[in-house]
Amino acid sequence: MTGSPTTARVHVIGAGLAGLSAAVALADRGVPVVLSEAARQAGGRCRSYRDTLLDMVIDNGNHLVLSGNPAVGRYLKAIGAQDRLTGPKEAAFPFFDRDSGRRWTVRPNDGPVPWWVLSPGRRVPGTGLGDYLALLALTRPHPDRRIDEVISCQGVAWEKLLRPLLVSILNTRPEEASADLAGAVFRETLMKGGRQTWPRIATPSLAAAFVDPALERLRRGGADIRLGRPLRAVTIEGDRLATLAFDDGEDRLGGQDKVIFAVPPWTITALLPQVTVPDDFHAIVNAHFRAVPAADARLMVGLIGGTAEWVFAFPDRFSVTVSAADRLLDMDNQTLTDMLWQDVAAVHDLAGAAPSCRIVKEKRATFAATPAQDARRPAARTPWANAFLAGDWTATGLPATIEGALRSGETAAALAVTPR
């Protein structure tokens, strides 16, 4: 058993992006941090690894951020990784319709006055100004209401722009998803102008952008980082957590020590069953194909009428993402490979059989972004004076996104250093 330290520490449990965000924010304040992670590598769902089948480093999934995500900017600056995001210097979202073979690019203008909806060359073909009024409706508060209770979920703009955007943002069938969560994203990005919506991809990998520089920053600051260290149980005395029982022993918390739990909601249920958390989840399926795209291939293309929503062309591979993909979980990998390669081939006009492919299925990728599940998201503060929560599933006001995860870490860190 580890005795009480002479200097108050903050234990951060979980080294996904929420935990790393909390740990970095604490380290910047000079607070001693003990970062414990059950897995043998940090990153959580935003991890990178060398895949033996493809013989290359891949991300477990394709995670997109936007230029206007403030927590992303603060975090990358804090860890010295501002240069690890790449993408076009404009808000440009190319689309391809498999059924018609038609291509177009949605191009919001940079400023906050959305004149782009008046320009036929910048909007979805076959749409007009009235079709985009749905965006304004979603930006108003609609507590406990689904999207299909706020706007009409039909028409060209819905099928060829709003639905594919929303399913990717919410990882939930858009019609049944929370209108407020969708509105929160639009208010912070598109409603502020296209400059806030430049798409950004981690380069050369998620780990290189978001994980490795954070671990290096923490080590330089003297943080105690322990990977492969699952937390099995906690004990509570009065209104405080008293001990943390890890596989390698028990840590007794000093009087000023704090704990930030940045773990999945099902782990919180096992450790602190008194806390209400989301209990319904949706899957994401990604496929990575070992094939070199053409030099002029678009980084990302939205797909209409296919299985995937987005097709990515990285320097050494193609990747696709399917959100709200529960229907695909029981499908065998070869069938999935062939099906998803058809999407890639259609977008990039390729012939031949699918190349080597790695299918990645995240069964519980995010909580279901419905009003009912949003209501189950807990605040960062808990009933215990020395315990706080972080994670994209906490009450961030956003869907389960990288931006939300990083904000949750900042919030928990701030509470941990604020006298109660």
List keywords for this structure.
single chain, 420 residues, alpha/beta, FAD/NAD(P)-binding domain, seven-stranded mixed sheet, five-stranded parallel sheet, disordered N terminus
How is the secondary structure organized here?
Layout: E1 10-13, H1 17-28, E2 33-37, E3 48-51, E4 56-59, E5 64-66, H2 70-78, E6 85-86, E7 93-97, E8 103-106, H3 133-138, H4 156-170, H5 179-188, E9 199-202, H6 206-220, E10 224-227, E11 231-237, E12 240-246, E13 249-252, E14 258-261, H7 265-271, E15 281-289, E16 300-304, E17 310-314, E18 317-322, H8 333-348, E19 357-367, H9 371-374, E20 387-389, H10 402-416
Helix pairs in contact: 1-6, 1-10, 2-10
Summary, kept brief:
With 420 residues, the chain is an alpha/beta fold. Helices cover 26% and strands 24% of the residues.
Cross-sheet strand order for the largest sheet? 8-7-16-17-18-15-19
What fold name stands as the CATH topology of the domain at 10-47 and 206-279 and 371-416? FAD/NAD(P)-binding domain
Q: What is the approximate shape? A: globular
Q: Going by CATH, what is the homologous superfamily of the domain at 10-47 and 206-279 and 371-416?
A: FAD/NAD(P)-binding domain
Task: Please write the string of helix (H) and strand (E) elements.
Answer: EHEEEEHEEEHHHEHEEEEEHEEEEHEHEH
Q: Could you tell me the mean pLDDT?
A: 96
Distance between the termini: 28 Å
- The class by helix and strand makeup works out as alpha/beta
CATH class group of the domain at 10-47 and 206-279 and 371-416:
Alpha Beta
Helix content: 25-40%
What is the number of E strands? Answer: 20
How much strand content do the residues show?
A: 15-25%
Tally of individual helices: 10
Major sheet summary line: 7 strands, mixed
